[in-house]
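chain below, 164 aa
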Amino acid sequence: MHLEWILSPVTQCAIFAVGLGLAVYLFLTLKIEIRAAAGRERRDQPEGEIRQLRVQVEELAARQRVNEEWTSALAAPAAPPSGFHLNRRSQALRLYRRGESQDHIASSLGMASGEVGLLVKIHKIVAAEAGRPPSALKPESGQADMSLEDKQSPWGAARSPNED
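prediction:
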């Protein structure tokens, strides 16, 4: 048997080249398969995440419906009363024009007498600035006039309503 051709350098180089080519081929096909598998995972992963997000959205919608049912079952809180209603203010001024005392106005409307006095003062100032005669607001006889013209400022000088 003539096996000397196996030992020839050309044969050895050819076998080495074929082996190297086969190794490169296997390496490249393996790399292609790995990329394809990663691509499939990436494509499948958003679908899985989308499914999870849809489930979460459905759960949140169910919670929202339950919360809406609870809040609709509860009575709406009443608005807190404001410090001074316009209706009470107009009633107080109307009673003052009729000649009622500040104490009587305060007790009948459930207000402090200081509030009524302040309201009358402010109304007089506004009426004076508007050019209406303050005689439309005549206090009851025996009641002190509470205009700012008779009062002293905290700094000792007399003040008039037009100084502000």
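The radius of gyration is 48 Å. The mean pLDDT is 77.
thats it, cya
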